[in-house]
Amino acid sequence: MTHPPEQQDALRGQVALITGASRGIGRAIAIELNRLGAQIALNYRSEEARAEEVLQLITARGGTCRAFRADVAKSVEANQLIKDTLSEYGHIDILVNNAAIQRSALLHKMVDADWHEVLDTNLSAVFYLCRAVLPSMLKAQAGQIVNIASASSFMGQRGAASYVASKHGLIGLTRALAVETAARGIRVNAVAPGLTDTDLVQALSEEQRARMIAMVPQNRIAAPEEVAAMVGFVTTKATYSTGNVFHVSGGVIMA
Q: Is residue 252 part of a domain?
């Protein structure tokens, strides 16, 4: 598909940091924001080879990309990620908080370690990164934060209490931070995907996939690129929006 030149240049000169960008939705977001002209800071925790593949793909197309290893669930490493990105590029214009994990268990069988790992990765990491990046954005009187939430931010889900709690909390954090920063030129929004074709979904059995698809009014699974396209829209077109949630769920939250 050929895109209009103005769309391709919409983020020219801007730096976008995407967490959890070595695969799935994060990978697609990194590629999309680079297509729109942004220089990419690609964060990964452990999958260096896959992160390198994304980096090579972007640079082969003439884009600028650097990969940074950090476990953003740890405050020290999240802070260092922001410092390293600022040191490399001089500024961060867009922060996409995408890194997330899920640990499945019924609540009464859930162990403390799994609960804290999910909350630390999906919610506390967003707090750490926003806190670290805000001084530079406030100084510039400009910036965008996009938090990748979930349809689960608005629904219950059996066996996923920690994940659902973290994604509910992420919506609250998005709105609270939007109120705090709106007058300083910073926009904070969330994108909420539904069932998306990632490694987690690919690992399901055909029966499980069919059962989940049956819950989606559009009767299909989203491609990661469709979620990335919404992030592209939010960062380039939704200029009078902050504190909002943009849904990419095939209508599942209506069900």
A: no
